[in-house]
Amino acid sequence: MDATTLYSIGELSRRTGLSVRTIRFYSDSGVVAPTTRSPAGHRLYDLDALRRVELLRTLRDLGIDLATIRRVLDRELSVAEIAAAHADAVDVQIRALRLRRSVLRAVAGRGSDPEEAMSVHRLTQLSEEERRRLVDDFVAGTFGTADADPAAVAMVRAATPDLPDDPSGEQVAAWAELAELVGDDGFRARMRRAAPRQAAGQPSAVESEAGEELTALTRQRVTEAVESGVDPLDDRAAAVVDDLVRRFGEVFARTPDRAFRDWLARRFEEAHDPEVDRYWRLVWIVNGWQVVPTLVPVYAWLVQALRTDRGAARRRPPAALTPPPAAPPAAPPPPPRAP
């Protein structure tokens, strides 16, 4: 093969893998014009035309549009320039596809109905600026008063949730839940009450009275139970809770009875708002941060476990030992006589 060799359109098709019809289209549109024609009027192409067709096919395979390819072939643009621009465009498409995949996984994992699926999709389609505005509105609506605690505002702003370009399904689900949570006026009031103490790093009253050692032990034991999947209503929680109630009883000089359990439950419930704890958990998930041990939402588990009356459950005979009900009578009893 040399520069003087001419190829028929069929030969060009065989060498490039493009169909005769496609090459004819490119030829008619002037992208790869025939070099000359045979005496019978058939199109003939030289080596330069062959190379143009090969480059055209390569760029088309990479998804580059025909108008841009024409500019490359006419030397108005370099291959490097259009490759860089197209790579950026492909990056955008990849991010969009990954986000779509994450939304689908989040919707599937949450068992979403059509309305919730649309809501999740809409929230993830917000631009970075729109997502930040959503959080700014939350901060302004929660702490936008003259007596707002500056440290609390700084803490919340420093932990602004920022959905990454390539979020996981878990992050998408967390962002959707977080977006709904920050728009709730009731939650904003709860955050306004809880954030100053959290920002100051102050323990709750019950933790302060119980002491640092017992507080740390409580967090450790309950965290282990939560991470092990122990249900607070299950009998497996009894060993953890009974030991903690005994220790708290010694510190507070109280009998570890039902009344003391209820008192402890109220104190922990007042000190640790489960929705506020949930907010921080969602922020960690969205931002991909490591969980801060001191803010693990363990007290909701503890409150449930404290309020479970296992004594009553133990007094009930096991289902397997309960005698079966008597067989029903063959005929219904007669109706009672009128008085």
Please provide a written account of the structure.
The protein is mainly alpha-helical. The protein folds into three domains: 71 residues, Multidrug-efflux Transporter Regulator, Chain: A, Domain 2 (Orthogonal Bundle), CATH 1.10.1660.10; 97 residues, no CATH class; 110 residues. It is 65% helix and 2% strand. It is built from 17 helices and three strands. Strands 1-3-2 form a three-stranded antiparallel sheet. A hairpin with a 5-residue loop joins strand 2 and strand 3. Helix 5 packs across helix 9. The termini are far apart. The C terminus is likely disordered.
Please render the helix and strand layout as text.
Layout: E1 7-8, H1 9-16, H2 20-28, E2 36-37, E3 43-45, H3 47-61, H4 66-73, H5 79-110, H6 114-124, H7 128-143, H8 150-158, H9 169-182, H10 185-200, H11 205-210, H12 212-227, H13 236-252, H14 258-271, H15 274-287, H16 299-307, H17 310-315
Antiparallel strand pairs: 1-3, 2-3
